[in-house]
Design goal:
Aminopeptidase; alpha/beta; four-stranded antiparallel beta sheet; eight-stranded mixed beta sheet; Alpha-Beta Plaits; about 375 residues; binds zinc ion
Length: about 375
């Protein structure tokens, strides 16, 4: 009995050690007395969710030290990237039923295989490299794919927060669906592929997602390998070019270069940790000039998922929220794309669980 208690204590100690921080990244919660406190806090830590007075946030070691000096009482939580042992696939065949996460090598191979299998409508491009040298990959899908035609360019990217993995696999499946649907002459997909240029980047922060190594998404982090939150690292309409006080990260620069080289008229940025469509602005309470239009398209998305699943994405205003109303984000990509690039971007939170068990991915599709 004594040995068993000792063993349990040892296991708990080890679990506590790993839950505190992975790659120096801590996940924690605390309470605020008023929303005004967020204005200051959002420049110190990375706020992840605000529900009433309860705040969930991430911090690297430097950020946590600064937060501690403010005197808040906080509770360290198990890191979302460590809660499950995700099922992994090491090749494309292992992804056939879309209920596994690919290893990093399997992901890269899959992306280039799409181009090999569908060269007339799929062009796969590496737009840059991460801090640790992993590839930032887009699939461009269109008819006459190697010609820059006079067509609207639309963009989907996922998982810039490395531990929010649901959209990662769903974007791979979206690419596959568009390519196979076009080949099968699905009229709706043919119409989209013939008349748009569709850019899809399943994994915007591979260093975060594969923080634990290329063979598993276990241990995925929110931040990139420099301990920077990619979704606080963009120029901000109100807070200037470097709202987080950090230089632009390689992941940020690659995305900004793509956005400057193209006219992405509408885009969606997939995240996890909640179920909601979040529309501009994040940085201030002012409404977008086309606020009603943003509400309409956000409702259109939420209403569509409601038609397929009851009880999913039903919080907030029936599945949608203005960004600032939820909580202020400075340096987010949504506001950058919408304000500086003249696009229209929404942030779609796909699952309450960040590192979703792989067998739940098909239901989220
Ligand atoms: Zn996120």
């Amino acid at each position: 009995m004594k040995i068993r208690i000792g063993m349990i204590a040892a296991i708990l100690a080890i679990a506590a050690f790993f839950s505190v921080a992975i790659a120096g990244e801590t996940y924690f919660k605390f309470n605020i007395d008023s929303r005004d406190e967020l204005r200051k806090l959002t420049h110190i830590i990375s706020i992840d969710n605000v529900d009433g007075n309860e705040v969930h946030a991430y911090a690297n070691e430097r950020e946590l030290d600064e937060f501690k000096s403010l005197g808040y009482t906080y509770e360290v939580l198990p890191h979302p990237g460590t809660l499950i042992q995700p099922r992994m696939a090491t090749d494309k065949r292992g992804m056939d039923t879309w209920d596994s996460y690919p290893t990093y090598e399997a992901y890269v191979a899959m992306m280039y295989q799409f181009e090999t299998d569908y060269p007339l409508i799929c062009d796969v491009q590496t737009i840059g490299y991460t801090v640790q040298g992993r590839e930032l990959i887009f699939a461009k899908i269109s008819d006459n794919v190697n010609t820059d035609e006079n067509e609207p360019e639309v963009c989907f990217t996922s998982t810039m927060h490395g531990d929010e993995t649901t959209g990662y696999v769903l974007m791979l499946r979206l690419i596959d669906s568009l390519l196979t649907g076009y080949t099968a002459s699905d009229p709706r997909i043919v119409d989209m592929v013939d008349n748009m240029e569709i850019w899809i980047n399943p994994l915007a922060n591979p260093d975060g997602t594969y923080n634990g190594g290329n063979s598993s998404v276990y241990g995925a982090t929110r931040y990139n390998a420099n301990g920077v939150d990619p979704n606080r690292n963009f120029p901000d309409p109100q807070d200037g070019p470097h709202p987080d006080g950090q230089s632009w990260q390689p992941e940020t620069v690659a995305m900004m270069d793509l956005a400057e080289a193209h006219m992405l008229v509408i885009s969606a940025n997939f995240h996890g940790g909640a179920e909601v469509v979040n529309y501009p602005w994040d940085t201030w309470s002012t409404r977008h000039a086309d606020d009603q239009w943003f509400q309409d398209i956000s409702h259109m998305y939420a209403d569509t998922v409601h038609a397929f699943s009851s009880g999913y994405m039903t919080g907030f205003n029936n599945g949608i929220t203005n960004g600032w109303d939820w909580y202020e984000v400075d340096g987010g990509r949504q506001d950058y794309m919408t304000y500086f690039r003249g696009g229209r971007e929404v942030t779609i939170e796909l699952s309450s669980t960040k590192l979703l068990p792989a067998n739940e991915l098909p239901a989220h599709w």
